[in-house]
Design a protein that fits this description.
Order of helices and strands: HHHHHHHHH
Radius of gyration: 27 Å
Shape: elongated
Number of helices: 9
Distance between the termini: 46 Å
Mean pLDDT: 77
Strand content: under 5%
Structural class: mainly alpha
Length: about 240
Amino acid sequence: MLLFVAFGFSIFVNLLMLTGPLYMLQVYDRVLGSRSEETLVALSLLVGFLYGLMALLEFARGRIVARYAAQFQSKLDGLVFDASINAPSKPGEPPTSGLRDLETIQTTVASPVFLAFMDIPWSPIFIAGIFIFHPWLGWLAVAGGVLLLTITLLNQLLTYKKVQRAHGVSQGAQNMADQAHLASEVVRSQGMRAAVRTRWNERRTEALAERISSNDWTGSFTAFTKSFRLFLLSAMLGLGAYLF
């Protein structure tokens, strides 16, 4: 039930995303032609109200989804806990892995990623609306969307291994620090403190280098995506002006 309510909010949130383009059209069509300051003030107040309503609906949608995720976890917590108690333990697998997986699902559902999936079905509707204005505008929107999707997939493919490798090296350095802490008496008694610290520092430095490399790759894709989105908006305006 909560998901249906959140999806209903998504309808109005996505419709309110048209506030900016419609405001721009009204300014160019009515305000600049009539030079009416009263019309500009009225439109600006209306836009401010609509954006405030959009923020309120977005906030409410996030709270609803978070509570749905909490209900989902609370309903399955007992079943998963009983299953983890009754199931035989496997070598190398923590006994509470099922509970951790359930918590991961709850975190994913409550995250903005899940809200983005609720907004995806509206993309074809908006693109179809652009085609109504002119086919050239529609194909430009399709080409821009395909390029953004391609960049996102490339980002995932090229940076995933780097992020995983950085995480693995960092985790190895952390495990080494934990082992040194557990065997601290042996390390001190054997005079191995400097050697252990040197090896740990080497792994720590390697982990930092890997993390910087992965952040550089991710940052480059993020910067290009942000710049291209702004360019796509300007390209739509420029093409619309040319068609007019």
